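Journal club side-thread
Mid-discussion, someone asked how the predicted structure for our own chain would compare to the paper's figures. Pasting it here so we can look after the session.
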Amino acid sequence: MIEELIKNNVKFLVIEPAKGEYKLAFGGMPDINIFTTNPKYYDMLRINPFEFNEEIHVLEHLDRLIEIFSACWPLYAAMPALLKASFEKAYILHGWDLNHSIYINQGNGKFPTFKDVVEILPELLEASKFSAETKGDYIGSLVTRVESLTNGLVGQIFTGNAIDDDVLFNQNTIVDLSRIGSVETKALLMGVLILKLSEFRQSMSIGTNLPLKHVTILEEAHNLLKKTSTDQNQESANLQGKSVEMISNSIAEMRTFGEGFIIVDQSPTSVDISAIKNTNTKIIMRLPEKSDCEAAGCSIGLNDKQIMELTKLDKGVAAIYQNNWLEAVLTKIDKSSDLYEISTTPIQDRKNRTTLIGDLLTELITQDADDNFNMSWFNTIINSSKVSKFAKTDIRNLFLEYQKKYETEQKPFAFSELIFKLMNCNDVFRIFEDRLPEEVLEESDIDDSVVSTCRIWSDCIYNNLDLYSDFYDEQTKDQTFINILLHKIQSEPDDYRYKLVLYCIG
């Protein structure tokens, strides 16, 4: 089906939470975008669930986001309300007038991230009238869950530096989530992608009942559209089931904007019934489980004998039904070609990046010494490098942001910030954090042992900078080290240890 979409110039998005086969099957396709959760092989998936298009109201987006969390996480009692309140406060702290959906620049970024929510949730709990036991339960469940979205692999995905929606939803793209271990995290990522797709289509489409322009393939759909119990109780009121149904309905509603969906799953009984009802065309291949046969067979009007035949279908044979047909037909499906298939997953050579960063730092520091900034030189260096096109775009955007501040009073801070972001070596500071000196209250307290500790720590950082960039001369490396240290001082003003290090080594 994807090959037919390509022939008809219909763009597609594949969201694959298991196996990771699509990137091999279509890895050889020209201009295919492949995003994974392992940057050693392809570009890293990066999305910010709190971002939305200007045409969308902030409260509208917030409600949908809470529905995604309710569908993916087991939220009960006051958890959804607490989560929503923390999201609202995060938006307010970033300058959003929630009633009018107006953004007022506060200098701390346009959209919040989960790091903001992690700081806000405990404050809301502390100010609440819950008992100490209930507060402890919520901290252990809700706060810990949100905190897990700020670190590790998932923390790198849920970032403020997100991939442009046009790349994800208007080009041929594969999002491979197969290396993520947590089923809940996979479901959350899938849900956020569907949410952003829905809002993107609503904001970018002109009119309704548009012809097919784009198709999203949702593999292993039960991760997001899982069948839930219809039972209700005082605690949950079947919140998860209602949320899944709303997501399924939003998928169906996108058809009017020219968006098609292919919902794929090996077990129909694992998928919510609303997803099955909302599909126009059903393709059923061999199903070994009786309950799956009955669920799928009844949805296309098969009799009992035909339903049992579904367990015996040959490879490549399927029962197909469309809503306007009188009955289903048995069809032999042609095997797809290997036109775009690749045999192995290519590994991205990190050396290409360190070479590029070294070239850029050398040029940047040289130009700064001459009190100059020539963007065309940096474009030439970036374009001639061997890193991926998305890595080039990210790095180019860093320089464009710096260019905006070059003629302003923010230039010194922006210069250090640019070098810090190019190096992308914050984990080195985390690794050697325990070797930082203790804070001193008076200059007279700085003795030889403090100076020695500062120099040992700075050597640890300095000697490992070569892992992140190629340095062609000592001066460039020295300037890089000083500037990343300056950025740590500027970005963490309450931590006086970095100032102490700079004082001791200066």
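Post-session note: Residues 183-204 form the longest helix (22 residues).
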